[in-house]
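W.,

You were right to be curious about this one. When I first looked at the sequence I had no strong expectations either way, so I just let the prediction run and decided to look at it fresh. Below is the sequence, 470 residues in total, followed by the output.
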Amino acid sequence: MSFKKDRRSSNFKIPHTYTIIFCILILISLATYIVPAGEYERAEIEGRTVVVPDSYTVVERQPQGMGSLLQAPLEGIEAASGIIGFILIIGGAFAVIQKTGAINAGIYRVTGKMKGREIFIIPIIMFMFSAGGAIFGMSEELMPFVGIFVPFALALGYDTITGIAICYIAGQIGFSTAFLNPFTVGIAQGIAELPPFSGITYRLIAWFLTTLFGVIYVMVYANKVKKNPETSITYHHDQKQRQALDEGFATNHNFNSRHAWVLGVFFIGILALIYGVIQYEWWINEISAIFLAIGLAAGIAGKLSASEIADSFIDGAKDLLSAALIVGLARGALILATEGKIIDTVLVSISGVVGAFPRLISAYMMFFIQTILNFFVPSGSGQAALTMPIMAPLGELVGLTRQTAVLAFQLGDGFTNMIIPTSGVLMGSLGLAGITWDQWASWMWKLQVLFLIIGCLLLTPAVLMNFGPF
């Protein structure tokens, strides 16, 4: 989707995302000279590589100097090639769909019917996406919907932030407080030797309350922006996009059978994707193939020529190139820390501190430890494999149930996916919306603080009631 970026002027400017990530690379490189190197032993259990508790040993320091620092971006791009290609393919596919005019025509038709009742669509959409995150771990699948709901929100009189929030934030809330997510709860409980998806009642309550909070927060914000659009951090950007939408409405306001075929192709593709993810555990390669097929089929259904399909696809991919490269740079940070052998040292150091505090404080600390580690390992299954072999027995030593340790993991793994620049899904979503990470962070940081508080609040009854079954 061809959204152009715009920066709103202010007294304080967050540094460019590239600047932030490269500074992080420098800091990690320096840390490899200071932090002692160490490693846990790993074991293969049911196809997953997990850490062996109490196996940490100090090893020879592996400092990552200037050469390693400068090679890290390319190594990160190579390591993250799957998600980078995924982002570019989604960008290309959506540009083809946009070229057909079906999105503008569909939005024009829906907004006409929703006149005066726009606000009620927010809770419906948000609960739907939150349920997707909670039930089958909807995360990467959220990206394409940003391309639909951002222009939809603009057409309803809201802003780009609202468009991202009603699908992306909702999905991540569900992912964070999931009650059935096999990629986080399922794997973490398996490692912690808990019955699959046990503790579902409390997780359902946590999911509903957290989603309700998110819905109310977004509705209040959206209503404020609708009354005074200039309060939006993306105001100038939105003005340009509304102008482009108005031009699109002028030429595509009549919803016809061609538009219906294009949107039909899109929704059939999404249904196939959801079925494949649930039934066959499809991942990046299969999902990318689905969106490539959606883009080609939509172009044909929209009666675009082969050249128009190709040109639109290239333009869409170019619009997301910046976001894709950021994913590679961020992965470079993990490579530096891994090659410098400091991740396990950090893990054993901070986990050792947990036992020095009362149970409730220990639970909070486990939550914040998982939150910090999520910056370096923004993968639910990866973080579960790294931390749960240590955190589950550690929790028992300080009087916490293994179920509470799993809850601390999933909350810490999930909430910060909404803001960390190392999340490929977030950066791809922002690229589709056409805004920069610093614009997003300027709005998101307050909500992120609230989610961290909510995480502690959700852990409190779990600790006090000895959240079971074990």
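Here's what jumped out at me. The chain has a mean pLDDT of 85. And, maybe more interesting for your project: The first strand starts at residue 38 and ends at 39.

Coffee later to discuss?

I.
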